Amino acid sequence: MLYQTWPWYVSGPLIALIMALLILMGKRFGMSSNLETFCSIGGAGKFSDYFKVDIKSKRWNLLVVLGSVIGGFLGAHWLSPNPAVDISPKTVTKLQELGFDSAGKAYLPTELFSLESLSDPKIWIILLIAGFLVGFGTRYAGGCTSGHAISGLSNLQRPSLIAVIGFFIGGLIMVHLLFPLIFAS
Amino acid sequence: MKNLAYILIGTFLGIVLYKSEAASWFRIYEMFQFDSFHMYGIIGSALAVGVILVLWIKKSKVKSFSGEPISIPDKEKSFTRYIVGGTLFGLGWALAGACPGPMYVLAGAGFWPILIVIVGALFGAFIYGVLSDKLPH
Question: Which segments of the protein form a coiled coil according to its record (chain A) (predicted)?
């Protein structure tokens, strides 16, 4: 059981529990603000006052990041004898048409996330742009999946609902309109 | 002691995100294709439990573990920043198949190309910070 995919009705409540634990520790569940903290540590305060913050007050969240790296290591190396993600057969077919032959056989598509894939400069550009959009978008929106979709909606915040609607507008445009242009072989 | 607690909470979060496959690019694609209930189940059940827990924390006026009163501030009211920022984030989330939590989880799992995504995300956050007072919010 532990070694299989954890079902949604176990994982979802556990994520809510993590959020509640952080609130009870006097903090908030939000992963994307760490991106700014890293910028501040890297000296971004020289370029904009936006990054002039008290780094010490953000340290707790960096420890959560450190933990999640450890958790990823444990999840991948100790708890997952079979890393293949059992996605819907319909999804597998759609992905094969886009040239993703690893669909249904791996945790991440080897076409994007293997060392071999990095021999193609196009993949570097795709990953960089994807990351840029995530980092820029999440700070513009003031939160990501954890800060808005989980924390904000749990607190019945209308701004978070608007942000989550935005997440879906963007995601649907990317997958349905842009994927065929980006990945068509 | 508190530091250890944060690391342990993060570790637990990392394991949950990895084992629920919320950190898998394939699950994100499948979600945006509406081909499976899995991701909607994770977010939906997290919300169902989350709403109750937040309501309880607010109503019971429970103190934090260190004895301080808990305040959960409301999000600043606006439309533009949430819809524009949210849409840009969504475009990136679907392409990278990872949001800011799972990125670190995947780095720990040993998927090295995710580091390029993280570099991109740091650069994106940096550019936002530089432009923030010129952008419409």
Answer: none
Pairs of residues, one from chain A and one from chain B, whose beta carbons lie less than 8 Å apart: 506
Bridge partners (DSSP) of residue B63 are: B69
Distance from the Cα of A104 to chain B's closest Cα (Å) equals 8
User: Tokens for A3?
Assistant: 């070694």
Tally Cβ neighbours within 10 Å of residue A115: 10
Q: Using one digit for the tens of pLDDT, what is the confidence trace for A55-95?
A: 999 999 999 999 999 999 999 999 999 999 999 999 999 99
Q: Tokens 């990895």 correspond to what residue?
A: B18
Cross-chain Cβ contact B86/A5 below 8 Å: no
- Shortest distance between the Cα of B56 and any Cα of chain A, in A, equals 10
Q: What is the DSSP-derived secondary structure letter of residue B49?
A: H
Residue B3 lies in a domain: yes
Domain that holds residue B106: 1-35+74-134
- Predicted structure pTM score: 0.96
